[in-house]
């Protein structure tokens, strides 16, 4: 159900998300940041896991994510240069969320699996939309990355079920899905709160401007030093 919703939203929002070269560049840059962040988490997981076989799988996955980040970043830079007002994107520098340490290996695998499956459905919707718009270069980019996304989804599920067993693996997937939903809700709340705070601040400045003008008209500022006596009365001469 969640996967169907992911694909449906991607199809619905594609005309807006990819409408212009500038929008496309910024979205691809965001994907590059996400891929690099995933790469960092997978490298940390490889260093923390007790299994040499899983460590090797995490490192192979990390190498794929690093390559995807470069692919997205190159295409983003190209589109930014093709925008009506060309602009430069900053270097791709993501941070690790240290999810392996936060969640533990079982939930970490569940998290990665859910993320890969979500990305697969999203990217498949983008490929369909790009082909319909005759944007063959962008379609080819996502098709190339989709090959890895499908493989990542398969191997993370296999490792999770081998590590935890079928029953506990499904429980881990449900727990992580709920955890992700809560995390997104908090992030959305912070995003909205920041925008509301900015809007209210600007509104207060706008509303305060007539009041400041009225004060100036009632009590104009005169040059020089004004000496006042008790209770604000003018000092005797």
UniProtKB/TrEMBL annotation:
Residues 50-159 form the Rubrerythrin diiron-binding domain. Keywords: Membrane, Transmembrane, Transmembrane helix. The chain crosses the membrane at residues 196-218. This is Ferritin-like domain-containing protein. It comes from Nannocystis pusilla. The lineage of its organism: Bacteria, Pseudomonadati, Myxococcota, Polyangia, Nannocystales.
